[in-house]
Design goal:
Layout (H helix, E strand, L loop, with lengths): L4 H20 L4 H8 L14 H10 L4 E3 L2 E2 L1 H25 L4 H13 L1 H4 L8 H21 L2 H15 L5 H18 L3 H31 L3 H7 L10 H15 L1 H15 L9 H21 L9 H13 L6 H23 L24 H14 L4 E4 L2 H11 L5 E3 L7 H4 L2 H5 L3 E7 L11 E12 L2 E12 L9
Parallel strand pairs: 3-4, 3-5
Antiparallel strand pairs: 1-2, 5-7, 6-7
Helix pairs in contact: 1-4, 1-5, 2-18, 4-5, 4-7, 5-15, 5-16, 7-8, 7-15, 8-9, 8-10, 9-10, 9-14, 12-13, 12-14, 13-15, 14-15, 17-18
Length: about 500
């Protein structure tokens, strides 16, 4: 299947930008957490299943680590650059294979490629990087089963979504949608010869899925389901439906998708739900594969105070996939405007991160912490300063006030240190360096920045304090503080 020149050009530009960025930027805060997973292989963590940790561990092997046990940022980003750049190509190939015209597939894949949530967000080394292609593949297998009535494709659709769930639990929504749709199809069929293959495909698919998920479920059950409790209870202390969330969810989608693409996808949901009953993606199927996950993720986002816009991304992939296969059309000016605006936003973010000299032409934010791109820089300098301090205080335990600080330190310094963490609620660091352990240490080096200015452990005396200020494009980026705390009453001797 020949790729359109336009898609080749778009992906070539994005790949060049991503590989260039890989040489310049460090870990994002979430990426740093996933990089630390490489030091602690597990079937499950508090935020996600263990697939992302397994992938990080693989990238840390063969001398590719920044320190023993963790992958280097450039290696990690080179891998994510290849996978994220291949994603629009995969979208084009699968939609064409499922019956979309070359022109519709080309336009849709081009829009997918430049949508900020994909062009920027999928570059991050996160579970979504592995969920997205698996989600698309499962949709393709499902619709090929619908078109060809080949039961094996139904089996593989279920198996692929189960495998995707080992990266991100969200995949279970698609797995359930495929299962319910297949069961309903089985009930609608009056032909015993037709029912038997579908029944076998379901049994093999469900049985295989349970085998794939069994180790993960067993590991969670053995610990009283810590991920479930963390996601639905511990991290949702202020959860509840509110006007703030009612505004934040749609505004977040507009920002992450870009305004015109958000409109196209929203209009697509309505159009697909009204599609003809004889279509492969008829309303009865849409209800389970599209509207079900979209509704569940949407309601959860409206309820949670820690919801992030990308939570809805998998459901939007379903909309984009089915829209490409449908006969729903949009004005040419809207498609062009969508591509242009999304491209401008994507390139603007890349320029902001990779060309800090541009910052002088824009007003500075009220505080440096409001520029979230700063999290990608400065941590190598911070850990170098921390190493100097550790030489002065051998045996001191490093502790941070929040998992973002702890993850950045641990990912950059690797296995040569064990970082304790004082996040307000328990996190994965409590498994690796329990609080009782670091609280009992004689000397603590407390590391923070202007995002977390307070919260030092009580009952200790400051014996040393140092600072490191970093700049980007002549503008303050971050001020790191290193405070040495001891149990004795020694007087401070450094500022």
């Amino acid at each position: 299947m020949k790729l359109p020149r336009s898609l080749i050009a778009i992906t070539a530009v994005l790949l060049a930008l991503r590989l260039y960025a890989a040489k310049l930027i460090g870990f994002g805060d979430s990426e740093a957490l996933y990089a630390t997973y490489a030091l602690h292989p597990s079937l499950t963590y508090l935020d996600h299943p263990g697939f992302i940790g397994f992938a990080a561990h693989l990238l840390s092997l063969g001398g590719l680590g920044s320190a023993s046990g963790t992958p280097a940022p450039d290696v990690l980003h080179a891998a994510s650059a290849v996978i994220s750049t291949a994603f629009p190509i995969l979208f084009f190939t699968l939609t064409r294979s499922a019956g979309a015209s070359e022109r519709r597939a080309e336009i849709a894949a081009g829009l997918v490629a430049v949508t900020p949530e994909i062009a920027i967000g999928l570059y991050g080394f996160t579970p979504d990087l592995f969920l997205a292609p698996a989600w698309l593949g499962a949709l393709w297998l499902w619709i090929r089963w619908r078109q060809s009535e080949t039961p094996s494709k139904l089996t593989f659709a279920l198996l692929l979504t189960a495998l995707a769930a080992t990266a991100k639990v969200t995949a279970l929504l698609l797995w359930a949608g495929i299962l319910v749709d297949a069961i309903l199809e089985l009930g609608r069929s009056d032909n015993s010869k037709t029912k038997a293959p579908i029944r076998r495909a379901l049994l093999v698919g469900v049985g295989g899925s349970l085998l794939l998920l069994a180790p993960f479920v067993w590991a969670e059950a053995a610990k009283s389901f810590p991920m479930l409790r963390h996601r639905l209870v511990a991290s949702q202390g202020r959860a509840g439906f509110s006007l703030r969330n009612l505004a934040a969810v749609p505004l977040g989608q507009i920002a992450y998708l870009s305004p015109f693409i958000a409109f196209i996808l929203g209009r697509g949901v309505v159009g697909l739900a009204q599609s003809k009953p004889d279509a492969a993606f008829a309303p009865s199927s849409i209800r389970w594969l599209l509207i079900g996950p979209l509704a569940i993720l949407g309601v959860f986002s409206l309820w949670s105070t820690v919801a992030e816009p990308h939570w809805l991304a998998p459901a939007w992939l379903t909309v984009a996939f089915f829209l490409t296969l449908s006969d729903i059309t949009f004005p040419r000016w809207l498609l062009r405007a969508s591509f242009a605006l999304a491209s401008v936003l994507t390139l603007a973010v890349h320029a902001w991160v990779l060309a800090p000299r541009l910052h002088q032409f824009f007003p500075a934010p009220a505080e440096a912490k409001h520029d979230i791109s700063n999290e990608l820089f400065g941590w190598t300098d911070a850990t170098a300063r921390l190493d100097e301090l550790r030489e002065s205080y051998p045996g001191a335990t490093i502790v941070g006030p929040h998992w973002t600080i702890c993850a950045q330190l641990q990912a950059t310094m690797g296995a040569r240190v064990a970082v304790g963490c004082a996040t307000e609620i328990p996190d994965d660091f409590d498994r690796w360096v329990p609080r009782d352990r670091w609280k009992s240490a004689q000397t603590i080096i407390w590391v923070t920045d202007q995002r977390f200015p307070s919260g030092m452990p009580e009952g200790r005396h400051t014996i040393d304090r140092r600072r490191l200020t970093t700049f980007r494009g002549g503008r303050l980026a971050r001020t790191f503080e290193f405070t040495v705390l001891d149990r004795d009453g020694s007087e401070p001797h450094g500022l």
